[in-house]
Amino acid sequence: MKNRRKLTANSSGQLLIIAALAIAIMISSATIYVYELSTETNKIDSYSISDIILALKQSTTNTLISSLANISKGGDKAILEANLNSLSEAFTNLNQLGMCHQSFTLINESKYTFGIYLSWNTNGLGVSNAYTNFTLEVQSMIANVAVDYAVNITTAVAINGSYVRLEGDEKLVNLTCVVSNEEQPALARNITLFYENLGIWIPVNSSNNLSIINYGNGTYLLSFTVTISSDFQVSTHVYDLRDIHVQANTTCTDA
Description:
single chain, 255 residues, alpha+beta, Immunoglobulin-like, 12 strands, elongated
């Protein structure tokens, strides 16, 4: 349901600023963490190198999450590359490590553009995905380490639904919604529903007797009533707990 984006061109800039602040905070946290490790041990041994690499890899994961959250709400797909360049520059400035260098490769093939894949279709499945390959090198007087790894951030929603007839054209809709992060069950921060009638997308709210049951395992049962004469499309818009947006459409038919 592409014509109901809440994001306007003016608010895109605000999202970029928010994303930049988030990245700056994350970089500062990583720097402080590395500094504390070095001051506690006064050396970089094999154990602290492992901890440092783990912290740096977590920083790249956080960067993909914040970038995908921005892009899934209408931000420019190029923001992922810009954020990763800023992060790599911050890694280079971690002088406590001796030399730290990170390079990355964004996927630009098949379904990906600048490492981003958004698929919000009418077949009941929606996917928001960011994927990047990394090489991280840390060189010091104690150890030289090079690590190749990939980060794959995926928020997906799968929906299916049907209705039963009440009186006249009134219908009771039952919709199952399953949310996942990296193919594992995940909770939703917010779920918004729309249904299509005569080419117009209409929000579902309390006037439709909306009911949402959360089973606590990524599965939600949504029920509501509509007055419409035939089968119809339903669009489900989901924000996960990481603020990544995904949506999917499906056709509701008579049960």
